[in-house]
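User: Modeling request: complex.
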Amino acid sequence: MAEADKKREQIIEGAIKRFSHFGIHKTTMNDIADDLSVSKPSLYYYFPDKKSLIVGVIEKVFKDYFAMLRTNLNDNDNLETVLFGSIDVRNSFFEKYFMLKISEGVPDLMWDDDVKESLDVLKKTEADLFADIFKNAQLRGEIHENDMQHLASLYLESLMGLTNMCIMAGHKKIMPEKKMLKDVADKQKALSAIFARGLRC
Amino acid sequence: MAEADKKREQIIEGAIKRFSHFGIHKTTMNDIADDLSVSKPSLYYYFPDKKSLIVGVIEKVFKDYFAMLRTNLNDNDNLETVLFGSIDVRNSFFEKYFMLKISEGVPDLMWDDDVKESLDVLKKTEADLFADIFKNAQLRGEIHENDMQHLASLYLESLMGLTNMCIMAGHKKIMPEKKMLKDVADKQKALSAIFARGLRC
DNA sequence: CTTTGACCAAAATATTAAAATAGTCAGAAA
DNA sequence: TTTCTGACTATTTTAATATTTTGGTCAAAG
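Assistant: Request completed. Predicted assembly structure:
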């Protein structure tokens, strides 16, 4: 890896630490520079603006998530087992990078064209990964459907939808965060179990 | 019906018109009073405060929704057919009262204890209704599960989750509102089809 | 029992000033 | 040449203040 790329990685790592602890819009470029004991213009030498650094962070986190997901895959497991494992991986990342939540970032960060495009690509990649999972289940005769891409999108959107529902319900702080994470996982797994069975018929 | 109750109904109807057209927090008590050609203190004679009027509106809307849902029910239909019909009813109300969206109402209206309690009761009622639907399917041998209440909650949360996902995706105004509503219905039905099949095994 | 005009306190909104932050640049260090 | 920095803006956030709007009350009238 080129020296410049190594430096870029270091900056991204530093940014991740700040972002995941204080949130994106509570972190200034100076904070990140100070953490790394460099000047702010140095950051701007490697990233044209804050937004591109954020995108770099997002892509790095997703990259790690995808790697972990692939590591956890076992072609011999049945669909339900694979989905349950994936849910655990997914939620461990969700918990670890909870403070990243783009939606509460800088004004309209979520709707910025560049960020949106990056997220779309990553979402597509995730969907591809799950489509492969479903295809694999199909090879083992566990599924009688045709459009695996479509199926993967529907499944993932359902999981994310449940996550959002639990977050909303838990925003009243009645449940102590930990309880909420368990709640999310339980519901996602309950749905996945029915979902997996529904594909068999 | 007592005269006072009739008047309460009229006020609620008037409030619904304003709320569903301009949203809750863009509607003042004076707006509602003027529409009905009465004075503001008259409103306060029937409702102690704005919040209780809002709760009255919400309960009225849900009451109508439940009635429509029951009307659309047919004990002879199979589970998938019933669920598809319910989705259409549900979304027609969602569309009609879109501007009501509590979440964007007055600050923390969603988290107000009174409103929250009322919503919890209504959500419980809806879950009961769907639990009955599942029980009915069970009688016809379409389901091999035991906890219908739990099942109904999971199903409804999944549907709502999908709705939220589509709303978020559509907030960028790329799709012209109508497209979004169709998108919601399509995804909810696709999930319901798999869900219903998953319960059979 | 119902309704109302006149009134008030609290909350939302608009205005302005002050502080913080993203981003630039000429030039130094490596 | 490539990488870095101190010193400097332009823009955005935040804080403070003034102004309007709106929820809610009350004494009195129909």
